[in-house]
């Protein structure tokens, strides 16, 4: 079963009848509730349903499939807010991976490293999470699986020092991409968020002209708290995109639509499962096709 086919099996039941019209208030109420339950958020759900109603009236759209297609188009437009590809235009380029504890940063890094290596990139991983026990060991396992080099230090080392070493190694070894793991941190802990800002300054100082991606990893099960997380990390680090993980359960992941709308942050990758190939480039049309 393909990636998006598996995703389709996750989502909510069908509220679409065979003969939907613009006068069907019960349908619009049910649809708005469905979108909210999918973690799209009240504001975004209300806007999407309002826009759907307007298009149905103006374009005389009715019937199950035409209405579904119209809603998919509306939601896809809300997700298309920026460049969903990675900017790896310099050698080396840097990818800083951030997020709260337990969202799947390290596994996402391993999967991303494997994908880039298979495309011919020389990838170097930086074990910047020096606080969590065995975090560097976990990243080393992924580095071996992805056949990439790793720069690490002892547990408790200064993350900035590890990053500095990794950037120097990348220059010396002519790596194409450096992917830096970071310690999971609560978005409301100021001193930990300040450390992320420090890592950004080290990158700016050592590789001032490097292409830099700052990817926020969000757990699809997080729901509306994901928007709060994204706002805080965006203020601290200037995120360039989102990796949405753990779409292998009952999670809807619809919060990314609200994040795209409020913060203009594109989703760049989506994770479904634990396999090394289970991180896929995000496609808005495929996603909303699975969602609806």
Folded structure, characterized:
The structure is a single chain. The chain has 292 residues and is of the alpha/beta class. It folds into two domains: 77 residues, Four Helix Bundle (Hemerythrin (Met), subunit A) (Up-down Bundle); 191 residues, P-loop containing nucleotide triphosphate hydrolases (Rossmann fold), CATH 3.40.50.300. The protein is built from eleven helices and eight strands. The protein has an eight-stranded mixed beta sheet with strand order 3-2-4-1-5-6-7-8, sandwiched between helices. The longest helix is centred in the first third of the chain and has 18 residues. The chain is elongated and about 65 Å long.
């Amino acid at each position: 079963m393909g990636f998006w086919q598996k995703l389709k099996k996750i989502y909510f039941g069908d509220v679409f009848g065979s003969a939907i019209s613009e006068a069907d208030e019960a349908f619009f109420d049910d649809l708005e509730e469905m979108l909210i339950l999918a973690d799209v958020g009240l504001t975004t759900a209300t806007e999407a349903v309002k826009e759907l109603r307007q298009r149905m009236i103006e374009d005389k759209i009715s019937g199950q499939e035409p209405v579904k297609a119209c809603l998919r188009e509306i939601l896809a437009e809300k997700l298309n807010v920026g460049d969903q590809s990675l900017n790896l235009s310099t050698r080396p380029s840097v990818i800083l991976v951030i997020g709260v504890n337990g969202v799947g940063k390290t596994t996402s890094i391993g999967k991303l490293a494997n994908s880039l290596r298979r495309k011919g990139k020389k990838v170097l991983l930086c074990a910047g999470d020096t606080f969590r026990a065995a975090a560097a060991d976990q990243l080393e396992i992924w580095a071996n699986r992805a056949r990439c080099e790793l720069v690490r230090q002892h547990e408790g080392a200064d993350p900035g020092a590890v990053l500095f070493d990794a950037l120097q190694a990348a220059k010396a070894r002519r790596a194409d991409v450096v992917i830096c793991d970071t310690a999971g941190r609560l978005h409301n802990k100021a001193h930990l968020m300040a450390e992320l800002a420090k890592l950004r300054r080290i990158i700016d100082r050592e590789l001032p002209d490097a292409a830099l991606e700052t990817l926020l990893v969000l757990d699809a099960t997080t729901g509306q708290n994901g928007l709060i997380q994204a706002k805080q990390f965006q203020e601290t680090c200037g995120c360039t995109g989102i990796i949405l993980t753990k779409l292998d359960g009952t999670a809807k992941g619809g919060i990314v639509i609200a994040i795209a709308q409020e913060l203009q942050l594109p989703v760049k990758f989506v994770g479904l499962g634990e396999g090394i190939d289970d991180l896929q480039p995000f496609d808005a049309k495929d996603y909303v096709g699975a969602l609806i």
